[in-house]
Design brief:
453 residues; seven-stranded parallel beta sheet; seven-stranded mixed beta sheet; 42% helix; 24% strand
Length: 453
Amino acid sequence: MDQSDEKLDVIIFGASGFTGKYTIYEGIKLLDGLKWGIAGRSREKLRQVLGEVEKKADRDLSEIPMILSDLKDETSLRKMAERCKVLINCCGPYRFYGEPVIKACIAAGTHHVDVSGEPQYMERIQLEYHQAAQERGVYIVSACGFDSIPADLGTVYTEREFDGVVNSIETYLELKSSVPYDGGAVLHFGTWESAVYGLAHADELRALRTALYKTRLPHFQPRLKNRPLVHKTKHVNNWWAMPFPGSDRSVVMRSQRHFYDNEKKRPIQMKAYVAFESLLHVIGVAFVAIVFAIMCRFNFGRKLLLKFPKLFSLGSVSHEGPSERSMENTQFAIYFNGQGWDKAEKLLEPSDQYKSPPKKRILTKVSGTNPGYGATCVALILSATTILHEHKKMPGKYVWIINPCSYTFTNNRFYCCFFNGGVYPPGAAYAKTSMIEKLCENGFKFEVLSKAE
């Protein structure tokens, strides 16, 4: 556990936090063969969390390097970033704590992944740091956990299996537990805190997106309409569904915009929903959501939400988070209902419009266990290792450069160089890598349920 200058492949920053602890646990298997370490501001807390994970995994972790780094100390962040090739950042809410780490990583030439589900943060980072990241050859990829990895890469998978042109996808999230509800929390306080500030600053998004995308997308037809606020869905056992308030749509649409701008591919329209088995459950969730939305509008309301999370979430949120028994017995599935046209009807330009309605359909599913922390940490680590092993398959840009060895105006005066790096959502970052296959090898399942012409 020394502070030597040995270059590591991966560092898990914020390792003593709730998400960090489970990332270490998953890292024992997924980072095997790599040089990796953990980082945080307290050596005592780092030792403590290593001890907990050692006991749970029955593995000796005494040789794992510990790096001390504090979010309030730019020098320590820079030194930490310089120690590794990829930094896994588990310190949220990222609205408050993410940017200094991004700056340190870009300065050090180190890749960065995190599990942010905060649209304002992610889109602002893309706006302000994309060019700098490209120039340094650094990948900054947020939303690398549940539920954005299944949603974004599930959209990529659905299009890959469609064999045609996808017009729209509706996603339905289903959560089930194989054990009776024990009355404990289902979310950690950190997730709740991110949601509070995310909703409080939701009005920032319009201006951010106007600055991020100088031109608007064409109005593709037919437009995907919103479903009723509460509706039944045949795709999830005829359960009740309502709009999903998470960041899935924001993340997926950023990937689709990337494909349109850089690959001239028609973007997929997307709407996200969450499904519940009973109408009573829907009413309870809707009540909490309405109270939450109203209180987030006022400073006093936000303080109450953060001070009494268990009360205002009806017991669903706590500082301790869900129990391990509850997490390990929770299953998730996201269903993707896609519609579009057969490949024989492909248009010449992505901005062209179809004259016939989309008749081809596909239903796919991405599923797994322990969505909040097990699946999240697996996806987070695989996001980091995919950058390590497959960065040449990730997006970048070609730049013409003057050949320094050429002194005459010949055909060799200029040469083309490919620069990797930039700020991307996971679908755009990993679409051409083996990320989906790696997820399937580690607890996720991607499958086609049905196709119809």
